[in-house]
Amino acid sequence: MKWSWKLARIAGIDVNIHATFLLLVLWFAWIYWANFGTVFAAIQGAVYIITLFGCVVLHEFGHALTARRFGVVTKHITLLPIGGVAAMEKMPEKPFEEMLVAVAGPAVNLVIALLLWVWIHLTNTQISAELLMGIDGSFAFRLMVVNIFLALFNLIPAFPMDGGRILRAALATRMSHAAATAKAATIGQGFAILFGILGVFYNPFLLLIAIFLWLGATAENQMEQNRDVLEHMTAEQAMLTEFRIVSPDDVLSHAVEHTIAGSQKDFPVGSRHLLTHVLTQNQLVQALHDHDRSTRIHELDLPTLITVDASTPIKNLLDNMQSHHCNMVAVEKNGELAGIVNLENIMELIRFSQAMQARRR
After folding, report:
1. Are 180 and 171 a contacting pair, CB within 8 Å?
2. What pLDDT was estimated at residue 109?
3. Residue 243 phi/psi, 5° resolution?
4. Which keywords, in A-to-Z order, does the entry hold (predicted)?
5. What strands lie across the sheet with 336-342, from one edge to the other?
6. Residue 311, SS3?
7. Which of 75, 159, 210, 344 is most buried (CB neighbours < 10 A)?
8. pLDDT tens-digit profile of 84-137?
9. pTM over 0.85
């Protein structure tokens, strides 16, 4: 993700921080300073939000480490002002596994809250509503309450919350994954409508949550329906058989000419006997910005082109493309190059397949 920096690497997972998160820290520091008028208060505000997001990171590690037990790799966790995002290759499709991965995050928050509760009692801290307010309030008590809130909020049975995935996993024990996703998305949209109504009459902030839940449910359902359409399709059905290859010795200006002369945007690099890399349109534009037009393609740092067999299911192919962060793969049949597949081909296949399914109904 752009504007992100690596903060640490824990258990083989990079923890990144986005530039906008620093603005959130400064904002909290300013709020505390504006309310209490001291530098100490500003520091306390910054420390509080950093500690809170430390709990968010632990929440995401709960997901990531549980997913790892089921063979799902998490490449990194990124801290954003809206929370943490764990970049998993995919979610486990077995209902029980998905449920455990989804539950793990809120469970971490509840464990943190329990440990803070023990600390509060060991230190004989008096518990009252006033402890939530003011610079002299209990830091541990406020952190405990927020962790309980995070757990409960994430358990709302609506995508993209953990509760939506728990609901989908429970439904998937009695129906197909696609049907479970559709039903869970409908329930999630119901919660979005409820939050929207409450937002109109009580708190406008709930309207933002309503929009967030509605869009999350819609996106998750659409993505799952797309995958369902591709359930029994293979790379051979989606591959492009007529395409242009650029040579590593070609100059950038030749790649530009090929792009303008045809409809192909991304090019495999190599020969018909061996494709090695991918030159995307965005990379070509960036290369023209950074280098002379006579620069040869082999001088660029391009992503490696992965190769799959023609019989590879498209669902597996998409997972492969996502894990390798590429938008094109080469397809081999009987040991020879048969074609290429890119995301545009797959989306076209989805559109045509959905249109034919709708016609049959």
Report:
1. yes
2. 96
3. -155, 160
4. CBS domain, Cell membrane, Hydrolase, Membrane, Metal-binding, Metalloprotease, Protease, Repeat, Transmembrane, Transmembrane helix, Zinc
5. 307-309, 328-333, 336-342
6. coil
7. 159
8. 888 888 888 789 999 999 999 999 999 999 999 998 888 876 655 555 554 445
9. no
Contact (Cβ atoms closer than 8 angstroms) between residue 17 and residue 5 = yes
Rounded to whole angstroms, how far apart are CA atoms 264 and 339? 14
H or E, element range at 193: helix 177-201
> Hey, what are 35's tokens?
């309310």
Residue 272 and residue 349 in one domain: yes
Residues 80 and 146 grouped into a single domain: yes
Q: Are 213 and 188 in contact (CB under 8 A)?
A: yes
Nearest-Å Rg of the Cα atoms of the chain is 25
Task: Count structural domains, the chain.
Answer: 3
Q: Across the beta sheet with 13-18, what order do the strands follow?
A: 4-10, 13-18, 74-80, 83-88
Helix (H) or strand (E) holding 13: strand 13-18
Same domain (yes/no): 149, 193: no
Kindly report the number of other CB atoms within 10 A of residue 258's CB atom.
17
pLDDT cut 70: percent of the chain above it: 94
For position 149, what pLDDT does the model report? 92
User: Does one domain contain both 215 and 254?
Assistant: no
Domain boundary among 229, 264, 280: 229
* Residue 59 among known ligand-binding residues: yes
From the list 329, 241, 218, the residue with the least C-alpha distance to 278 is 329
CA distance 106 to 101: 10
Q: Which domain holds residue 177?
A: 158-229
* Residues found in the chain: 361
Q: Is 60 a catalytic residue?
A: yes
Handedness of CA 283, 285, 290, 294 (dihedral sign): positive
Same domain, 168 and 298: no
Catalytic pick from 60, 97, 220, 224?
60
Instruction: Verify that 139 and 216 share a domain, yes or no.
Output: no
Q: In 3D, which of 244, 239, 218 has the Cα closest to residue 307?
A: 239
Q: What is the DSSP string of 76-111?
A: EEEEETTEEEEEES----SHHHHHHHHHHHHHHHHH
Domain boundary among 120, 155, 190: 155
Q: Are residues 220 and 264 in the same domain?
A: no
Residue 324 annotated as binding site: no
- Per residue in 311-326, pLDDT (tens digit) is 988 888 887 787 777 7
The two structure tokens encoding residue 283: 């990379």
